[in-house]
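Mods, move this if it's the wrong board.
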Amino acid sequence: MESTTVTTLLEQGAKLVLRFTGFDYGIFVLLLAISVLIGFYFGFVSKIKQNNVEEYLLGGKSMPKFPVAASLIATSVSGISLLGVPTDIYAYGTQIWMFVISGTMTGIVMHFIYLPVFHDMQLTSCFSYLELRFDRVVRLVASFVYALSALFLVPVVIYVPAMAFGQVSGVSLHWITPILCVICMFYTTVGGLRAVIWTDTVQLLLMLGAIFAIIVLGLSDVGGFWEVWRIAERGERLVFFDLNPDPTLRTSFWCVTLGMTTNWIAVFGINQACIQRFLAVPTRKAAKNSLKIYIVGLLIINSLACFIGLLMYARYEDCDPITTKQVQKLDQIVPFYVMDTAGRIPGLPGLFIAGVFAAALSTMSSSLNTLAGTIYEDFIRPCRPNASERSSSATMKLIVVILGLLVIGLVFIVEKLGSIVQMAVSCTGVISGSVMGMFTLGMVSTRANTKGVVSGVIVSISCMITLWISALGKLKYPFLPFRTDGCDQDILNGMGNATLPAPANSTVSQAEAELPVIFRVSFMYYSLIGLVLFLAVAYPVSLMTGGGKVPDERLLTPWARRGARGGERNSFQMKVKEVDECLPELIKHKITTPE
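Not the wrong board. Structure tokens:
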């Protein structure tokens, strides 16, 4: 093959290592250049300056709904999604595809419970809600936990695509990670939320272009959609309704629809980055329209990623690259497939890897912007109550820089932790159930109080940490069967003494069998278990300690408000309308219902 027209192949013994061409590098660099230019425009050229809190964090509350929805989708679809979801389908089957139910339920819950409250209150930090509903201690605890979880996940989000780029380019992630982080820090710091949203929109288009290109090529190679489906069925990959109630199964219908629904609500329903974008539009109606676009787009992109997993299995049905050691880790199979399938078209592998990095940059930029707002609003502003808007904006930009440098350092720690993706999901589940419980109980119950909430958080997180640590490193989920009977002899020779991975019906290891059943529960249930533990403690303790009071009915979801159940309904709706018409002032103060 000629290196000027196709992806370079480097001989290494009996194996071929696929590499980028110069054209692929050009596509990749172009993505980074676009991100820098957008940040430069909003920071130095645009007449709208990022010199106040409302503009920097909420885009002046005048962003169009489609870029906001695109930013939400791009933020939620990280490189972990684009690489991890296809890999999961390839190794474990399509049961996880039932997230379409989880996503639909998430949208419904957000629409009727969380979004109305957050948009009515118009708070820069969603954790301000907890201070208004309970007290400042609850708010600071939730903000601190959120900041820690975000700082843990962002290095993972950057590390996964950096590892993929290293595989196809040979460039060490020690070089590529700092470069990407610095670029992300630049357009986030200089351009504020406007730059983040418009960069996310461009990056989403890149992601979609890369995904569709890979799908079209994959279908062409295999022989069409129905041939892919037939091969997947023959390989036992089509598993949608495994109704086995065993909670120790890695994935089942119940595990995905119940466990993942709770996880998605915690991650997307009360996530500061998502709420921040819903507040960037001028009206509640526009926010709800953005929510609909967001949920549909999220499900479509994740479904396309699932189909790429089926395409990979169709291509490697009888010659698995993992078993034959053509890839060293399961997580590397997606970039290997892309190079193998799209390498004949100059620039297409570069476009896909650029799309993966676009997802990572989007998540990182959104997290940095959100964390800066949370840290400033919850921990710094109370110490500087008289600071000017310009000074506050400059402080948040400095926070972004510090956080970015911290992420760069944490990436090199993540590199040493092994299978970090599952660990990250488990760690998120440990705390997300209790955080979700705080918001949910506060919005749907008038009896919840601070003592109940704090007790629920302590019990939930303590139990979940015990569960997580006890199971850490001891649960080995076997793959579905792989085959190598169709491999060329030179590939089989390169296997050495490698053996086939254990099939899914293999007996559990001795270490796993010795664990009590509770410690073998699937990590996908962690959020749900944490939520149940929180509610089981928080509500009874609240009742036993005298219950609580709600100072403002807008702190409750609409169907829980007294005014919505009695004769005050019309009066309250008029007050909400007044709130929507006075948004610029409401962002700076706690809101109380006018008498």
